[in-house]
Structure formats: structure tokens, C-alpha cells
UniProtKB/TrEMBL annotation:
Keywords tagged on the record: Membrane, Transmembrane, Transmembrane helix
Recorded topology in the membrane: Multi-pass membrane protein
Protein name in the entry: Nitrate reductase
Compartment annotation: Membrane
Main localisation: membrane
CDD domains, sorted: SLC-NCS1sbd_YbbW-like
Region (Disordered): 1-38
UniProt source species: Streptomyces canarius
Family: Belongs to the purine-cytosine permease (2.A.39) family.
Length: 507
């Protein structure tokens, strides 16, 4: 089928409420066919009930997790002091908040999840490209977080059972009891997701404050070991504020942005339940930068304290907690890690890819099936390798993720805000042959912009410790700016190709 050009026209099967939110017109049958299922349909306005508090609480629950902790402590481990690490993380979260609010706008307005939102720019079928890419990234995150949770179980059981557990025979470089702990934590998460979204929401409500208290307890413990709070602030930077710092700053900043770049795309999966645009805007603005900065502050102080006490920074909180001789303190710390990891992993890394995989085959893959696919692929990605050292974790994994997903974000922002001016046809998002069918269900302009942005963002990236070398050595100067390069390239190229082909996508 040839391109179809959307035009500004009355849309009979949807209504716009006075507050700007849009839903299917009363009496209109819900979209059906091969590109719709119950999980992908627009959320009715009466079920869009999340308030500013709900969105803020969501971010508190997701930000207070072990991966966020290692994000900040990893910067200490590679040479920054606490001021440099907190500055880098605070700036990154202010930057990533912008595309997050822009892409999140479609959620409360239309009640649609990310893979359906992506159909407007990539095509009804083409949306599977960014959906699967984003889902595979989430699989990596789910695997990393599950490995962290498995570590907590391993150390917790080791304290209770003794040397027989800790010194068990090794398989693949780790004790078999560590692999068992990993499997147990994996199974716990799959069991929770099968109970549905309401169980997840209730879990998030109490998990966030519990984890925050745990972080302050760890700070109190480390300051006591270090002889007061002073030594935590006194650890000097190995880099200074000269060229050595700025050389590390840019890839670190892109890595920090990459940390939440997944959520900056699939945030409509959550904002689709928003009561208003104000709720999602203020909820995210109050929840993300403040929470992440506070948690980063606690993390870098504790890690600086570990440097003062043990002579080297211990960036993994599970490894740090295991150093205490106080059994009660260790149990509390490791249970906190378990709760924190469950909190973020289920909300951020199972919910969204479940929708993404469901979008690939709506009639065959339900939300729960998509979640199970995510959990299985998470193991096959070998998360223990991604998490093996801070250098690879921050610069390889987060850098690659940020560059790739920044490319998708550029296309979404260009299409929804600059071309369509936030106007979408709900029915056509599910309809073959409609405004978003393009050529055979694919918008080639979005695909070209995605590939071009991806090559420039990732082509010069170092793949250590996964492998040596760079895919395109000539692009190495761009590697430190992957997220910005990917977003900027795809946004400009998509706009250029769309306008040059005479398509003014304003309907």
C-alpha cells in the first residue's frame, strides 16, 4: 500500500473533553483486529485516576533502588569525589526529565501505552522496531537487577547457613549457591507480576519509604565506622576539576542519562493512567530529579566512607553490607536491597516490555506472556557480565542504551510535538490502511532516521569489557555524547525527510 497523508479533519470516533483529554466517543466500539488487544486499548477517562502524588511516589519507588545506588557509587569508584558525582547525576536527571515529560504527554491525553504511541511515527507495524529495541533493553535491566537481588539472597543465606553455603563449588565463575539465589529471586518476581498491576501498585506504596530509611541507616553505620561524617566528605577526587575530570564527565553524563532513557520512552505506559497533564508533569518533576539527587548523595557519601574505612571504594551495596559483623544490621540491609530491587525491577523492567512484546503479536501475546518472555530473555543476556565492573556498567552498558534510545526519543518528539502538534487519531492507531499505515504499515522515514542516529551514536563506542575495539573507529569522537548525538540526529533527519516528502503530519 502506498503512503497515505494524514490531514487535519474531524475525527468522528473520538471526543475531546474540556481539559484536553481524548477518548473514544460514547457508543463507539473499541478498536479490534490484529493490532489490538485489551492491554493495548486506550484507558477510558474515568480510569485515568493517578494524581501528582501517585507519580511522585512511583519515582520514589523506582529511584530508591540498588542500581541507582551503584550508579552514583560507581562514579566514586572511577575517580570522582562526592561533589562531582552528585553534580553529574543531578544534571543528567534534569536533562532526561525534558524528553520524559514530552513523551509522557500522550499518556494522559489519549490513554495509550508506548508501543501504540510509537505507531504514529513508525507506523502501525513499524512501531514493533522501537518497541522490541526498548523491550530488549528492559530485559538487560531486568537481568542486572535480578542478579543484584540474587546477590542479596546469597549473602543473607550465607550469614544464616554458614561456610557450607558461602564456599560451595563454583560453576561458571560463581558458587552454585549464587546461581540458585539468582533463580529464586527470578521466580519471586515472576510470581508477583502474575498477580497483576494492582499488586504492583500496593507494593510500591510501602517499598519506597522502607528503602529510603535503609539508605540512611547505611549512612549512619558507615559514618560510625569512619569516625564521623567528616571523613565521608574529605575523600579527594582523583581527577581534580581540570581536563581529567571533563574527559570522564561527558561519557558519565551520557551514561547517567542512559539510566532513565528507557523510562523516557515508555513513560506513557504509566502516564496513560494520569488524571491530568498537570498530574504527570508535576509528579515527575517533583519525583525524578529530587529523589535521584538525594539518593545519589547518600550513595556517594557511603561509598566515600567505605574508601576511608577499607582503603578502596566499595561500590556494590550488597558487597558493602556483607562486611558488617552485626547480623541484625546485615539482615536489615540485605532485606532493604531485596525490597528495593523488587520495587524497581517489576515496575520499570517488567511492566513496559510486557506491553512491548504484546504489541508484536496482540492476538497471541498477553501482558502476562510478555512479562514471562522478558524474564526468560533477561537470563540469556548474561547480566552478570554487564554488572561485573563499574567501567563496563557505566560506559559500555549505559552508554549503548542511552545512545540507542535517545534516537527513538528524537523521532517521537519530532513527530508528536513538531509535526502533529499533539493531535492523534485514536482509531487509526489500531487500523490497517489508516493515517498511520504509511507503506505496508511502516514509515520508512522513521526507520532511516533511527538507523542513521543509531550508527552515529553507537558506531564509535567502546564495547569493553564485552569485547575489544569499536564498530566504526572513525566515529570515536562522538562516542562520549551518544544520547545527545542519537536524539539530535534522528530528530533533525526525521523532520527533514517528512517535510521534504510533502508530508505535514498535523492530523
Amino acid at each position: 500500500m502506498t503512503d497515505t497523508t494524514p490531514t487535519a479533519r474531524p475525527i468522528p470516533d473520538q471526543v475531546t473533553l474540556p481539559d484536553g483529554r481524548v477518548e473514544l466517543a460514547p457508543g463507539t466500539p473499541p478498536p479490534s483486529g490484529p493490532y489490538a488487544n485489551q492491554d493495548l486499548l486506550p484507558v477510558p477517562v474515568d480510569r485515568r485516576t493517578w494524581t501528582t502524588y501517585n507519580f511522585s511516589a512511583l519515582w520514589v519507588g523506582m529511584a530508591h533502588n540498588t542500581a541507582s545506588w551503584t550508579l552514583a557509587s560507581g562514579l566514586i569508584a572511577v575517580g570522582m569525589d562526592w561533589k562531582q558525582a552528585v553534580f553529574t547525576i543531578a544534571l543528567a536527571n534534569l536533562i532526561v526529565l525534558v524528553p520524559m515529560l514530552l513523551t509522557g504527554h500522550a499518556g494522559p491525553k489519549y490513554g495509550i501505552p508506548f508501543p501504540v504511541f510509537a505507531r504514529a511515527s513508525f507506523g502501525v507495524r513499524g512501531a514493533n522496531l522501537p518497541a522490541v529495541v526498548r523491550a530488549l533493553v528492559a530485559c538487560g535491566w531486568f537481568g542486572i537487577q535480578t542478579w543484584i537481588g540474587g546477590e542479596a539472597i546469597y549473602f543473607l543465606a550465607g550469614k544464616l547457613i554458614g561456610d557450607g553455603w558461602r564456599n560451595a563449588g563454583h560453576i561458571g565463575g560463581h558458587a552454585w549457591t549464587m546461581w540458585l539465589s539468582f533463580a529464586v529471586f527470578w521466580a519471586i518476581q515472576v510470581a508477583i507480576i502474575h498477580r497483576g498491576m494492582e499488586t504492583i501498585r500496593r507494593f510500591e506504596n510501602w517499598a519506597a519509604p522502607f528503602v529510603l530509611v535503609g539508605a540512611f541507616v547505611m549512612l549512619w553505620w558507615m559514618s560510625g565506622k569512619a569516625g564521623g561524617v567528616g571523613p565521608l566528605f574529605d575523600q579527594p577526587s582523583k581527577l581534580g576539576w581540570g581536563g581529567d575530570f571533563w574527559k570522564l564527565f561527558w561519557p558519565s553524563l551520557m551514561g547517567m542519562i542512559g539510566f532513565w532513557s528507557t523510562l523516557s520512552l515508555n513513560i506513557p505506559d504509566f502516564t496513560r493512567y494520569g488524571r491530568s497533564q498537570r498530574a504527570q508533569t508535576w509528579g515527575q518533576a517533583l519525583g525524578l530529579p529530587t529523589t535521584m539527587t538525594l539518593f545519589a548523595f547518600l550513595s556517594v557519601l557511603v561509598t566515600s566512607g567505605s574508601q576511608a574505612v577499607y582503603g578502596e571504594p566499595v561500590w556494590d551495596p550488597v558487597q558493602l553490607a556483607a562486611k558488617t559483623d552485626n547480623v541484625a544490621g546485615l539482615l536489615y540491609a540485605l532485606v532493604t536491597v531485596l525490597v528495593a530491587t523488587l520495587s524497581v525491577n517489576i515496575a520499570a523492567n517488567l511492566v513496559s516490555p510486557a506491553f512491548d512484546f504484546s504489541n508484536v503479536a496482540p492476538r497471541k501475546v498477553s501482558f502476562r506472556t510478555g512479562a514471562l518472555i522478558t524474564a526468560v530473555l533477561a537470563v540469556l543476556i548474561f547480566p552478570w557480565k554487564l554488572y561485573s565492573d563499574p567501567q563496563g556498567y557505566i560506559f559500555t552498558w549505559l552508554g549503548l542504551v542511552g545512545g540507542l534510545l535517545g534516537t527513538v526519543a528524537g523521532i517521537l518528539v519530532a513527530d508528536y510535538w513538531l509535526l502533529r502538534r499533539t493531535r492523534l487519531d485514536l482509531g487509526d492507531l489500531y487500523r490497517p490502511g489508516g493515517a498511520y499505515w504509511y507503506t505496508g504499515g511502516w514509515n520508512w522515514r522513521a526507520v532511516v532516521a533511527f538507523l542513521a542516529g543509531g550508527v552515529l551514536a553507537l558506531g564509535g563506542a567502546s564495547l569493553k569489557p564485552l569485547t575489544d575495539g569499536r564498530p566504526v573507529p572513525a566515529l570515536a569522537p562522538l562516542a562520549d555524547y551518544g544520547w545527545a548525538v542519537g536524539l539530535g540526529t534522528s530528530l533533525v533527519l526525521y523532520l527533514t525527510l517528512t517535510l521534504a516528502s510533502g508530508r505535514h503530519a498535523d492530523g
